[in-house]
Automatic annotation (TrEMBL):
Domain of life: Eukaryota
Biological source species: Opisthorchis felineus
GO terms, biological process: nucleosome assembly
Protein name: Nucleosome assembly protein 1-like 1
UniProt xrefs under InterPro entries: NAP-like_sf, NAP_family
Lineage, highest ranks first: Eukaryota, Metazoa, Spiralia, Lophotrochozoa, Platyhelminthes
Family in the record: Belongs to the nucleosome assembly protein (NAP) family.
Pfam families reported for this sequence: NAP (PF00956)
SUPFAM superfamilies given in the database record: NAP-like (SSF143113)
Gene Ontology CC terms, in alphabetical order: nucleus
Amino acid sequence: MAFDPDSRHEFDQFEALQNSGLLDSLYESLTSKQRAMAHYKSLSPTVRGRVRALKRIQCETLKLEVQFYKELSKLEQRFADQHQKLFAQRKAIVAGDYEPTSEETSWYGNEEEHADVQNSLTKLGNEGDAPAESGASSLTKTNCRGIPGFWLTVLKHAPLICDAIQPADVPALKCLKDIRSVAIESNGQPGFQLEFEFEPNEYFSDTVLTKRYFVSYELKEEDPLTYDGPEVVASEGCKINWYPEKDLTQTTHSKTQRSRLSGEKHTVTRTTTNDSFFQFFDPPKPANSPKRTNATTEQKVLEDFDWGQYLKERVIPRAVSYFTGESLDLENEVDDPDDFPFQLPR
């Protein structure tokens, strides 16, 4: 193997700076990305050329990933019908259209779960916060139909979503019968549609509210090495047909004023936007040009995309685990990037 004098000289310079302590002081004032870029720029042209060759190889591996995810999407569609059949069974139980058999209601740890609930109720009653007997009767009540408030509870237990639910939204969300995701394609653009099915209610006439998300599987031409799998690139909401004076997303204020010139009275109407879960169906629109993109709007767009993926990939398929709170343990298992600080070679 040929000896590269540039590499040897560069290593000697780097080692001398490191031993002097100057490099440590400089690196401490930089972010991790700045440190990495500074190190790369300190390399000789020969070594940087080799790094660029590695980038080309990495780009080819990412192209394979694109093909992998496209094939994975086809595989998901093969199982979609089976998933929908199971979700239809879930919907029937939640709505009270089907009563599970005793065999179907058995689950691991039922006795332990029942004992824990009884112990908690007894303790609560003994502390005087609530009568244990009345608490138990509310949990064991058998005259209700299905599982009341199932999807409202699921959403309230989903950390990414729960804060968006306002007190005024609760009565409407109690009427939520089902949430499902179906694959769609529009003008060659693949994606998925979230469907929120409601019982007849006093707020809007729609039985189903929809939210569409479109997904890109391709590498970004301007920065292909940032590829991290399919990503949502656009979303579309739907119009909600609110009944008069029942719109949860905005409030209309009317005020009578008298003209200073004519003395005649006239009514001024002003509309204010409310925080509401139902704003989800009116997503923010990204700017056509990156130069015109507002940082706040961009953040809201990204949050909206996160919501869509979160509902599709986690909440809908694992709804009962969110209902019981068991999924919250998984939600908390997130790696902290600060656990892996940049370290200089020693």
